[in-house]
Amino acid sequence: MRKPLALFAAAALLAACAPSNVTRTGEQAPIYPDYTDITIPANIAPLNFKLKGSATRTILCVDGRKFRSSRGGKLRFNEKAWRALMAESEGKTLEIKLLARGKDGWREFAPFTWTVSADKIDPYLTYRLIEPDYEAYNNIVLQQRCIENFRTDDFSDNRVIGNKCMNCHTYANQDPATSMFYVRGPGGGAILNMDGKLQKLSIKGEDMISGSVYFGFSPSARYIVFSANKIIPGYHAQSIRRMEVFDTRSDLYVADMKEHRFIRSSAISDPEMLETFPAFSPDGRYIYYCKAPQIDTVTLENIETQKYSLCRVAFDESTGRIGDKVETIYDAYSEGKSVCHPRVSPDGRFVCISIADYGTFPLWHREADLLMINLETGERIPMTAANSDGSESYHSWSSNSRWLVFASKRDDGVYGKPYFCHVGEDGTCSKSFVLPQKHTEYYDNLLKSFNAPELGKGPLPFTSFDVKEILDSEPTPFN
Questions:
Q1: How many whole angstroms separate alpha carbon 240 and alpha carbon 231?
Q2: Mean pLDDT score, 380-391
Q3: Is the pLDDT of residue 97 over 70?
Q4: Does residue 160 belong to any structural domain of this protein?
Q5: How far, in Å, CA of 319 to CA of 110, rounded?
């Protein structure tokens, strides 16, 4: 009779989700990933996590009722049940309680919350999966992940395309029908995706110091603005920053993707200035970019003097004309800071930037944080809840301007992972959380970084084998 009674007692315990013999610790639950007190989109995949320690059984309760239990400390949710919970919880804040049974009996940790936002996030994420080493590249993959579930697909793999290096993928307007990335080295080029039909382009003028490096699409996708950079790597002997990548020269140009011609302006190709990281505003009226005074000879000894400010110049998408007047939006140089990666929200109200002490390579700068600027008022909005004591960089927006994704090295200082935060109507951000994974030990076992994550509204219509085929063709030149 003891076994049935024990089963009955356990069932009562789970139903009540508050056993009488539990010890309430008042401590925050030691879970990884940290999914405590966060705002999440209703269409996110299950937030699977593990409870650190030696629990023999774990129970998760939602608003006082048991939602999931497991043997040990790993919580993996049934996807169907999770979707039902998210659907019924849109616009609500859920109270989450964790109970764990160990050798000393049951413990209940301090409750935390999940605020389920009705603001949906774009369902796809692209990124470059790469080892965070800097002597050589190996096994680089461009992947897309459906963040509503756990499906992952490669769309360019360097083992398929001839062991070539690939740069990161960028959408036009978060639209999978138009996007581009670069394949470097012999036979490479800019791989343009237009409605699933791939083209190989050679975006380089004879008088340019390099081909296209960093770029962004105009709203119509007829134009891209790009930087041509002469880049030098440098390696610290003893530093948590490890590596610097800095410009010795850099200029901006616009490429007409329809007529395959370059549009030039001395306003953004000033020989006394370094211009880089360009991006169009969503209405096509401005080009935002980073600018710094040219240094005669850049070395690791004087790299800390290289500081970029946020600027913009007018652009007329109907004519392709670049304006003559450069406007400084944030004079970071005068404050001893440096701006990287300006990205304007699709509604045109905010620009998000990375701020570091110097340079344009924040990946190994632990002080690198995100900062929001209200373009209507000029107000700078700290993103304290989203930032950490690790590097934050390479951010991008969801198409509704309510979510940001960015690469963060906060967990171990080495491996970058995609973190998300909700952006309110006033530009303030919620606490950020890492991309959920099916297996709770996924990040412990992965020895690669997620580089330059980008949100998209749907799956890409091509594969690594399509990329391999187009690489065998001759590139379309620009003039």
A1: 21
A2: 96
A3: yes
A4: no
A5: 60
Relative to beta strand 338-344, strand 350-356 is antiparallel
Kindly report the backbone phi and psi dihedral angles of residue 460, in degrees, each rounded to the nearest multiple of 5, phi listed first: -75, 145
- Pairwise CA distance, residues 350 & 383, whole Å: 13
Q: Are 103 and 208 part of one and the same domain?
A: no
Whether residues 24 and 134 share a domain: the answer is: no
| Chain-centroid distance, C-alpha 202 | 27
C-alpha to C-alpha distance for 106 and 192, rounded to whole angstroms: 57
Three-state DSSP state, 211: coil
Q: What is the pLDDT of residue 236?
A: 65
> Residue 299 and residue 413: Cα distance in Å, rounded?
24
Region of residue 165 (phi > 0: left; psi between -120 and 50: alpha; otherwise: beta): beta
Model pLDDT, residue 138: 65
114 touches 35 (CB < 8 A): yes
Number of residues written out for the chain? 479
Domain that holds residue 404: 124-140+204-454
Does residue 430 lie within any of the structural domains?
A: yes
Q: Do the bridges between strand 112-117 and strand 38-41 make them parallel or antiparallel, or are there none, so unpaired?
A: parallel
pLDDT grade for 235, boundaries at 50, 70 and 90: low
- CA dist 50 and 293 (Å) reads 49
d(CA 359, CA 292): 9
Burial class (CB in 10 A: 0-12, 13-18, 19+), 266: exposed
Query: What is the C-alpha to C-alpha distance for residues 306 and 308, in angstroms, rounded to an integer?
Result: 7
Helix (H) or strand (E) holding 105: strand 105-108
Asked if residues 216 and 280 have their Cβ atoms less than 8 Å apart, the reply is yes
Predicted pLDDT of residue 362: 73
Q: Which of 8-17, 96-105, 366-375, 466-475 has the lowest mean pLDDT?
A: 8-17
Preceding peptide of 453 cis, ω within 30°: no
CATH assignment at residue 7: 2.60.40.10
pLDDT at position 6 over 50: no
CATH number at residue 129: 2.130.10
pTM of the entire predicted model: 0.93
Phi and psi, residue 465, nearest 5°: -75, -30
% of residues, the chain, pLDDT over 70: 92
Beta-bridge mates of residue 451 = 128
Q: What are the residues whose beta carbons fall under 8 Å from the beta carbon of 108, sequence distance 6 or more?
A: 18, 22, 23, 24, 25, 97, 98, 99
Q: Count the neighbouring beta carbons within 10 Å of the beta carbon of residue 437.
A: 21
* Among candidate residues 159, 122, 125, 157, the one with its CA nearest the CA of residue 142: 157
Mean predicted confidence (pLDDT) in 27-33: 95
Evaluate if residue 18 carries a pLDDT over 70: no
Instruction: State pLDDT tens for residues 66-95.
Output: 999 999 999 999 999 999 999 999 999 999
